[in-house]
Structure formats: C-alpha cells, structure tokens
Amino acid sequence: MYKKKVNSLDKSYFTEILFSSPDKYKNFEKVTSETETIATMGSCNSYTPASFKKNSLSIELKKFNRIIQFDKKNKLITVESGIQLSELCNFTLSHNLWIPQIPGYPTITIGGLVASNAHGKSCGFHGTINKQIKKIKIFHKTHGWLDLSENENKEIFELTIGGFGLTGSIIQVQLKLEDFLGNNFITEIEETNSTKDTLDKINQNNDSEIYYYSWNRSDNLKNFGKGFIFKNKINTNKKNISKKISSKINNINGNLFLNFWNNYTISFSQSLYYFFFKYLKSNSYEENFQNVIFPFIGKEFYFKSFGKKGFIETQIIVPVKKLDLFVDEIQFLYKRYEPSITLYSLKNFKGKKKFLRFEDDGICFTFDFVNNSNSIRFIDELDKICENHSLTPSIIKDSRLKLDTIKKCYEEYEIFKEDIYEYDKKRIYKSAITDKLLI
Ligand SMILES: Cc1cc2nc3c(=O)[nH]c(=O)nc-3n(C[C@H](O)[C@H](O)[C@H](O)COP(=O)(O)OP(=O)(O)OC[C@H]3O[C@@H](n4cnc5c(N)ncnc54)[C@H](O)[C@@H]3O)c2cc1C
What we know:
The chain is of the alpha+beta class.
C-alpha cells in the first residue's frame, strides 16, 4: 500500500490516495482488512472521481484479469473483473462472439463496466451491459465472498449492476456473449440540417442491428445541430475479424498546460470535420472493428486539450414524448448563453430506468463543454429541465451534477440509498462520487 496522486479524467478532482494493486486473492483480502474505507478501482478511466477519494484506499484489480471459463456452445464466459475490454474482445472475437455493450475505450475493465452499467454504440439496439450479466462474485469486507445472480442474492445482484462499487469489490463476472459474424462494419453517412432533422432521421424504432448516432455542429447558432448521422452495420461478407484491437494504447490522462479550445478553434475544427465528411468522404465505406467501437484510440489528445481546468460532459436520456420540448429548450439556451461546446452527439437508447442506472427508452444527448462560466450557466439550466421533466442525466460522466438533481431525476434514489445503508451499515465502500450521492 502506498500513496499516489490521482485525478479524474475531467480534471475536476485532484488528490492523494492510498493505493494498492494486489496480485493474489490472499493479498487482496489482507489489504481489504487493513482499512476502514475502500474504493475498488478498475482502470480509473471514468470522467468523474468514481474509484477514489482523498486519503482513502483504492484497491486496483487490474492484475485479476484472467479468463476463468469459456463455454462456446452456450456462449458464456466467466472473467476476472480486471480484464480490459481489448483483452476480452480479442479473445471472444476470435470465436465470432462479443458483448455488444462496449464503451468507447479499450482499457476500461469489466468491473468498471458492470459498476457503471455501461453502454456502447449499439445502445438503441442492445441496451446496456445489464442484459449480458448472468453471475457476479463479489468480496465485501464484512459480508465476505458472495455469489450473485437472478437466483442467488438477487437484491445484491441488482444493487451491484450500476452500483458504483458500493456493494463491494466485483471479482468475477459471467457474461452472455452474442454472435459477431463478420469481419468489420459498413458505415453509411447521411447529412442532417438541424437537431430536429437528426431526430427524424435516427431510426427510433430500430429492430434491425444497425447502430445510429450523430455528430452535430455546435460552433454557432446558424450551424447548431447541422451534421451527419452515422449508421454502422456488421459486414457479414467475411466471417472472421480482420484486425485485432491494438495493445499499444496511449495514456488517456494528463493535460496540456493551456486550454486549446475557444470559439475560433471550435469553429475551425468543426468546419474541417464537416467539410471532410461532406466533400471528401464517401457516403458508404468499410471500417474496422477498432475504429467503430473504440473511436477514441489515437485521439487521446482530445481529453488533454482542455488544460488544467478540464472539461464537463453531460449525457442525458430524453424520452421520445419530451424530445420536442427538450430540443426547443436547448436551442433557446444556446442562443442565450453561448456555451463552448466541443462535442454534440445524439444516439438512440433502449432500457428500463432502475436505481441509479443510466438507462431508459429515448434519445441520448451528449455534450462536451469547455469549463467556463457561459457553459456552466447553460448546464445549470439543463439541470433544471432534467429536474422538471424527470430526464436521466448520467452520474458517472458529470462530476458537477448535484444531489438535488439526481434525487429529482432518479425516482428510485431513496430505495437505492436505503438498500445500500441496510446492506453496508458501516458504509465501507465509498468514492468522491458516492460521498456526494449518499449523504
Ligand atoms: C474515452 C471514453 C469513452 C467512454 N465511452 C463510454 C460509453 O460509450 N458508454 C459508457 O457507458 N461509458 C463510457 N465511458 C465511461 C466508462 O465506461 C466508465 O466510466 C467505466 O466505469 C470506466 O471503467 P474503469 O475500468 O476505468 O473503472 P474506474 O473508472 O476505475 O471505476 C468506475 C466505477 O466502477 C467501480 N469499479 C471498477 N472496478 C470495480 C470492481 N472490480 N468492483 C467494484 N467496483 C468497481 C469504481 O468503484 C467506480 O465506481 C467512457 C470513458 C472513456 C474514458
């Protein structure tokens, strides 16, 4: 156990923690017994301080990364929770299988995936990782080793999925795999004139396996919402994956001394991107698995480019019947506050709201902001819209989200809180984010 300086990816939280990265189960149990409060850490890739807090112990599980059991016939795999997505994908894809709910960075661990109930590009079709989880084995400082599933300790099983590590350390996970009968993806692009046009063109009743998401301009009022819809479909012409996920991944954390983004650089970069896809890129092309599923590989500079003050990401699921209202509101607020938005994107989402899981039926809006006063004023107003209309803002993405907003947006907040206090009376498992959540 030693001291270590860490920070959240969005740069909202810098601190010193106690850190341990055990390599054997007996060392893991020993280190757990030596401290009052614990956070379990995956790859610490979260935008928010979700797996650490000041002066508290974080136990990193990256050395527990083995494949324990693989049942190809029944499409089931049991892995240790520290396995990274790149390692898991490279193994399963070589058997024409995968989990479709893959968040956009390959170093993310299965423990982090389960604890944040993550989703991937295909969330309009496949929903969140919740759908693939069959069994979980956890270790809790006072409850010891527990097997969780629909049939065993069901309540704790449910609390653990999207539970931010509050039920203890996830050690092993059994996942149901799906077929991936192709070698890459076919990507089709369609131009769109506004946010409403994007919504009309994103297929909201998506019953074929096509992943829809958009890139929209946000550099000025005239362009706001213009952009492209990307549609990815598995290319079934050849059956074997053509390119593995690279094991050489750049460090995603760190920062430039100065913030690179201002109105000119946002406008310049969005114009370049727009003209590239409008005039130079074909409307239909083949793309390898890595580019589609892990779009941030090779673009790590983006996260560092906001300088020491960092960035804010807001992700909100808006049910279909509230879309018109939401779109009118954001256009009005954009005109009024002129926030600095570097990324604006939409995708469809399928799921059922439960506890604090980021999940619902609707459209998921994503905004990345430069951390400045105009952006904050805009986001504060977005919070009010979320509160008034019970929309679903992501907790794992936005460090600044207030408890009041979370309470108003997540109907099962009180149930979740009571169940956690009942289960872990001493509140041993905590992080900076869960301290805010469970006051
Ligand atoms: C570039 C990028 C793209 C992303 N894209 C998406 C996306 O498309 N969709 C999406 O849903 N998310 C996305 N994310 C967010 C990411 O999926 C989550 O933040 C994820 O939890 C990070 O996993 P991690 O292994 O780094 O875990 P950490 O950041 O270390 O921890 C995250 C949470 O999981 C808990 N945890 C981790 N391991 C364990 C364990 N073994 N036992 C118990 N609790 C544990 C921690 O305590 C913490 O609460 C993205 C993140 C990045 C950096």
